[in-house]
User: What shape does this take?
Amino acid sequence: MKTKEWLIEKTLLLMALSAVAMLALIAIFVFIEGTPIMAREGLGHFLLGRKWAPTKGSFGIFPMIVGSVWVTIGALVIAGPLGLACAVFLVEIAPRKVADIVRPAIQLLAGIPSVVYGFVGIVVLVPLIREHLGGPGLSVLAASIILGVMVLPTVISISQDALEAVPRTYKEGALALGCTHWQAITRVILPAARPGITVAIVLGLGRAIGETMAVIMVVGNAVKVPAGLLDPARTLTSNIALEMAYAGGDHREALFATGVVLFMFIMLLNSLAALRFGRRRPSP
Amino acid sequence: MAGSTSIQPIAELLADRYMAQHAGPAVEVQGGGSSAGIRAALSGAAEIGMSSRQLKPEETGLKEYLMARDAIALIVHPGNPVRSLTKEQVRGIFSGRVQRWEAVGGRSGAITFITREEGSGTRGAFEELVMGKETEIAPDGIVQDSTGAARAIVATDPDAIAYISLGMVTPEVAAIALDGVQPTHESATDGTYALTRPFLLLTKGEPTPKARAFLDFVVTPESQATIAEEGYIPVKPAGRGSGA
Assistant: This one.
């Protein structure tokens, strides 16, 4: 029996380690492939260069960095308030029956393949933007809206957890002191859940910056720094996905280097989220 | 065989026919793009590479077999009154010098031009045939990674213009004339329509017997008839095997 237990424990440990090993391998591979060209071109030139003509030897990814940041912030402007409102409604206000319908619907939203989001975007959203707001339609705005909807489930479910983790006594205390329900939500529950809500937003950011397929379809992919919401842009992910199939030599390395930058962005966001998770328990 | 996604559909069709008629090893067709096809042929990953653009001077060591030709059509929204452009005007539009439809005889509106991604064979052929050495496609154009996506945008945007393979033109978009010549099967076949590109099959050195058998099959009259039916321009048997 003892050996059997030991064997099972070690097997599980091995499996857990293999997941970490895969992450490490991917990271090492991307860095080995991507860093040489950054060194050759100069990090400043690579990160701040505005000209991307990889088959002609220009590797500046500044437009893509700006594109990613714009689109991601745009998505959060949409998903943040909407997601938080939805979570508050589900946890504090909704009658059970309503919550039982809304909750699975939101989970379903997470299950829709991104190419479907992109397709709806290109067929419905892009023409709407073009007709009513102007520009080519394929734009930062279109990508932000699509991404905003895509990250909603992440923002909602994590904010919901954060709200539910606030001890019941807090709310009861507030009500006992004469607060209305709304005051209890805004003055007591939301502040107490703030670290968890921050995590929800940051993880939503991570998901938005990494999304590729839907973005390629609606963002326009033009290599220029967007001057406004209605301008097309190119994100780091769409740059890699668009060109990887064809790329060779320096071009391929430059795409891996784009991946390194993206990796850094996501690592940064996730460590930010992890930091906040550490302080998750609400302090009185 | 692997390479150009433009050649892939017709290559798959011919491979199916070939396998139905010949016993023996299967012919596998993969996409990946012209540049990937050239690399695959050079590295030996594929016995036959497919390229829908001319080889660049530095891409040496390959034997070329011309399988068909394909015309590239410029397409606009059916509601766009512009039905003809000169090569110079097209160059102006895609280089970003001409930004308004009224400058090329259309109604008032900003031009949205749609190009393909770096490395695409269609883009490579368009750059070579239209843009020439001096002018580049402006970086601020919309980039789409497939013929279908480019066509879908033109079908919904009255101000858009794109270039796609003539075989892929559908009634939702209008193909326009270049220098007064409407792109049709006939004008492309007799050479009056200027925007045509070769569909090349590539082998590293002498083809293997298996590859040789398929290369021969592709230029039989029946195969060439199939190529014509699919909307591409057949080549005469004499025109093949130009060598590297």
In short: Helices of chain B lie at 8-21, 34-43, 87-95, 121-131, 147-156, 185-189, 209-218, 221-229. The longest strand of chain B covers residues 62-76. Residues 8-21 of chain B form the longest helix (14 residues).
